[in-house]
Amino acid sequence: MSAVTEDGVQRASAAEAGDRGRDGEERDEDIEEDEEDGFEFGDAEEAMQCVEMAGTDAGALRAQANDYEALAARKRKALAEEQPQREGSKRPRQDELSEVEAATMFDQLMEGFGLRRKRRSKDGKKRGRKKGTKNKGSPEVIKKLGDATLLFAEEKFNEAIPILHEIVRTAPNLPDSYYLLGSIYSETGELDKAINFLMLAAYVSPKDASLWKKLIPLAKKKEDASLARHCILKAMRADPEDVDLKYLCGDMYRNLRDYQKAAEIYEQIVRIYPANIAVRKVAAQMYRECGQIDKAINLLEDYVNTQTTNIDWSVLDLLISLYLRNNAVNEALKKIEKARLQLRPQQKLPIQLQAKEVICHAYLGDVKHAEIFLRDVHLEPSKDNTDVIKELASNLETMGLHEYAVKFYLMIGNVANRNDGSLRVDHKEMGSSYVKVAECYMVLGDKRNAISYFYKAIQSMKDNIHIRLTLSSLLIDEGKTDEAVTLLSPPQNPELQSANAPDQQKPWWCDGKIKMQLAKTYYDKGNLEDFVDTIFHPILETLNVEYANRKVKSMKKLPNTVLHERVKVLGEPRPDSVFQGLRPVASPGELQKANRAKKLIEKRAASNEELKADDSRRTKQVPPIPGLLANMEHHQLVLNLCRTLALLQRYWDALQIINRTLKLGNDVLTHDSKEELRSLGAQIAYRAPDPSHGFKYVRYVVQQHPYSLSAWNSYYKVISRIEDRFPQHFKYLLRTREEKPDCIPPIIISGHRFTAISQHQSAARDYLEAYKLDPENPLINLCVGTALISLTLGFRLQNKNQCIVQAFAFLYRYLRLCGDSQEALYNVARAYHHIGLNTLAAVYYEKALAVEEEDHPIPKLPYEAGLCVQDDLRPGYCDVRREAAFNLHLIYKKSGATDLARRVLKTYCTV
């Protein structure tokens, strides 16, 4: 069995009433919607059922209602499905009739619990109760009611309750019986039952405002805001002229921040009591809060214009503030002059009006009144005077009069001090004043004074990050870098500092902005290790968190925790109350969200979707440095960090930063920044112990410059340092050869790969393919010749002599292209020596010894072009005479010429 709702119709839950408030355009239904005047019980049985509900245990009542609902819903469905089949069928069995009767009874109960709703007529008929329907009791009922009242007065509650139940059965529409029952339960401390019966009495007699007023304190005592609001609105509708109710209603809307409705209610009170200055001021403030400045001005002007003596200065001050907000400076000055004319001979304008006069003249470009105020006005220490000076200084600062703003901000400290020197305001308020003074000095270009006042401010506001950042920037500009470092560094006793910090707030030295500023200072000073230690972990953690946040799927469906939090706006169910469906105390927008959330929860519960899911699913975390890559100013800091890590040989740390930065900042980083990071990654790949982590960067360099020999040299240097087979390298070579068949370096590198695994036939095939593309290349001719020689030394080749001749043909071509250089002579001699032709090998070794080779600079890799790389090479690193002499001495020694071998070693291989 459901409970009676506020409009006399039974509903299954309180959430449906919230749907009526979904549209913000609707007004309160209790005041402006078309409602019923009340309800009447159809007979005594219906009234007694309602009385039983009001005094029944809530759990049993809910169980009974759920049973009725389940039975009725099941029977309705059966009736809807079987209706076509039952046409012309026999009469249902007896057991079926009981279910039909149960469903019919529940439908009748759901139609109004026997309550006949009497809605207002919308066709212009005469309003009000029909004649002859006023609730009047018989003499017997009046006598019983008198007896129950006497028993109530004698506190014989147990004897009065049965009599009142009998009165309800005899005269169900008499409100006095319900009122007396509610009073009895209120005296016995049963608050819920008292509210139920008083609500019944109020609904039976809705125009009796006293009944609704009695419910208001009970609802507040129960801390039921929805019920209190409902009773206030009902009482106002019953007695529109009750000012106390309007006060309660206005305060209620004010607490809900519905300033528009609050202003309208307060204005109604003003119309009733025009001399009530306090309410007039509150109404004007409410209009100001909702942006209706003109209405607020009109409301105050009506009062100020009628007052010639005993002016309320607070009202005039508020009016002038509204004029200034509306840019009506001349009107404000007129009001001030008019008020000055009404002063007595020795009387002066209040300090707040004098300050407003200074502001008005400053807006008009006249600052002499500010000087007069500073010179002549002496204020007593008080919070009000401090607020006046603060408002005046803030307005002057907004107008760009920073010199005068400084003077007034400094005046705050003097006003706040007592005669004994103690402060009347807290340290944070004084600190904020010093911050304002320092900011004004910064605008004026006086950095010295700005620094001193920032130091004063930070003594009161040690955890303020903005002050520390601004002050450190000023110190750096003034060349006081060490002071800036001390200011941004963690304190010596961080445990003591963190104990004084607010709860759930990390210490100021852990803030990402502080760490970034400190790191920049270290970098500018050249303290690279301190720079890395300060900023590396915050940046790496930020990049990891941002990367993890991108993996978190953006859930279109809100988690259950969020939905349940929104549903709380509708209020808790009222299981122990007869009356359900009271509109929650919330704004229309909150009600709309709450009702949507409730419907979604019910839908998920019905489909068993995500109802038992763990709502502790992954959510996006807040990184230590929010917006690291989104801010262009931070990109250079990341680049500096990567360069420094590479310089300090922390290659793996640098690669972590580079990898995450390129993945996350592909859309925000500039082209030059991305190129620099990739070049730096290629350099790290060549120098790091494990070059496989930087392979993609050298591959990117080759992809961007596919015909650059220096790019391919850097690529091959990285690959040659990877000992194991590297599938990515092989796949990339094959793909490059397919896409660019005229590109020679990948063909040569493929030949080198086959040579390394002793597949000389495949190597020779690749080298010859490269020879077809560039026959005048000395390196290709050398590679072809060496590959053919290595092939002849195998066991499978039959025409070895022909292959050797071909090999030396390529080698002599190589010698000619190199111009008989020392290196070429040595390579030819080494080829003869390798196949056992020692006589010819000795000839070419001797020719190599006769040639002197100067040192040539080693070509730099692409990423080394702008770097000063120090090569630890001894003089003569391009001269191969020592190698040629050693090989020649082996030939002499093998032929028996020991003395000759010894002489060659002594000449070329000793220092």
TrEMBL record:
List the residue ranges of the region (Disordered).
1-47, 74-97, 117-140
UniProt feature, compositional bias: Basic residues: 117-134
Q: Does the keyword Ligase apply?
A: no
- InterPro entries from the xrefs? Tfc4/TFIIIC-102/Sfc4 (IPR039340), TPR-like_helical_dom_sf (IPR011990), TPR_rpt (IPR019734)
- Where along the chain is composition biased (Acidic residues)? 26-46
Which parts of the chain are TPR repeats? 175-208, 243-276, 431-464
Cross-referenced PROSITE patterns = TPR (PS50005)
| This protein's name | General transcription factor 3C polypeptide 3
